[in-house]
Every structure is written in structure tokens, then in C-alpha cells.
Design goal:
The model is unreliable at 138-150 (pLDDT under 50). The chain has 150 residues and is mainly alpha-helical. It contains five helices and six strands. β2 (6-7) and β3 (10-11) form a beta hairpin. Helix content is 48%, strand content 8%. α3 (86-98) crosses α4. It has helices at residues 24-43, 60-69, 86-98, 107-120, 123-137, and strands at 2-3, 6-7, 10-11, 15-16, 48-49, 72-73. Residues 39-104 form the Tc1-like transposase DDE domain. Pfam families: DDE_3 (PF13358). One of its GO terms (molecular function) is nucleic acid binding.
């Protein structure tokens, strides 16, 4: 399982998450604390955090962690017909990896291919994905200023 964060003019590195079942506590320990809060700190004090609504992201422990770290979650319906914007990015990444000229023979070569292709994804694509979310929710997100009117 891989995790990454995107926003206008920026992205995190692609991070591998260890094998096994993702629980709320693992999500806190392996994604939120080491990556999401640092990304927020590098960008601005206030921004809206969006995840993919997986069950493990909806635990009380996760919400307590988000609250204690000052991470505001974007609220959207669990079964929304409008897919999370990151799915468009994963699709583009998958196409890039599939288009490589050599096969992925094992887990390590797949991870290397994913990482290399993630770094090559055009920032314009990521910016467009984020901007499409702004248009869908009809709000303005000023990423540098951290102003998010509802």
C-alpha cells in the first residue's frame, strides 16, 4: 500500500505502508503522525485534510489524533458518487507504471517503478486534480494563506 499527499504546487514523496491490515492506529502511526502533520507544517498552519473515507480512517482514535494535531478533515459522504480526487492521480500513476518497457518481476521492482513514476508525474496534473475538487465543493481554498471559507 502506498500513500502520498498532493496540493497546489507541491506533493509529498510516495510512502510505502507496511503489509497487513490497515487499522485506525496503524493509520495514525504510519501516515498521519509521520507524514500528514509534517506536510501541513511545511505548507501552512491551516488546510483541509482529505482522505479516501476508508473505514480505518473513521475511527475515534483517528479523529482524536486529527483534532490534537490541528488537522481539519474535509467532510464528505462515505458513499459519495463523486470519487476522491486522489483516485485520478492513482490512475495516472498506474498507467505510467504499466507503460514502462520492463516488467515488474517482484515487489521491489514494483515499488521502484511506482516511486520513479510518481516523481515524474507532472505537477500540473496534480494541481488540476486539486483545483477540480475546489470547483466540485464550490469553495475557495487558498493554500498559501490557509483560508478555507465554507
Amino acid at each position: 500500500m502506498e500513500w502520498a499527499g498532493i496540493m497546489i504546487n507541491s506533493r509529498t514523496r510516495l510512502h510505502g505502508v507496511a503489509n497487513g491490515t490497515m487499522t485506525g492506529q496503524r493509520y495514525i502511526d504510519e501516515v498521519l503522525l509521520p507524514h500528514a502533520r509534517l506536510f501541513r507544517g511545511a505548507v501552512c498552519d491551516k488546510f483541509v485534510f482529505m482522505d479516501d473515507n476508508a473505514t480505518c480512517h473513521r475511527t475515534f482514535a483517528v479523529q482524536d489524533c486529527l483534532d490534537s494535531e490541528g488537522l481539519q478533515r474535509f467532510v464528505w459522504p462515505a458513499h459519495s458518487p463523486d470519487p476522491n480526487t486522489i483516485e485520478n492521480v492513482w490512475d495516472a500513476l498506474g498507467r505510467q507504471v504499466d507503460g514502462r518497457n520492463y516488467p515488474r518481476t517482484n515487489k521491489n521492482t514494483l515499488i521502484r517503478a511506482l516511486t520513479e513514476e510518481w516523481d515524474k508525474l507532472p505537477q500540473k496534473l496534480l494541481d488540476n486534480v486539486v483545483q477540480s475538487m475546489v470547483r466540485r465543493v464550490e469553495c475557495c481554498i487558498t493554500l498559501h494563506g490557509g483560508h478555507i471559507p465554507y
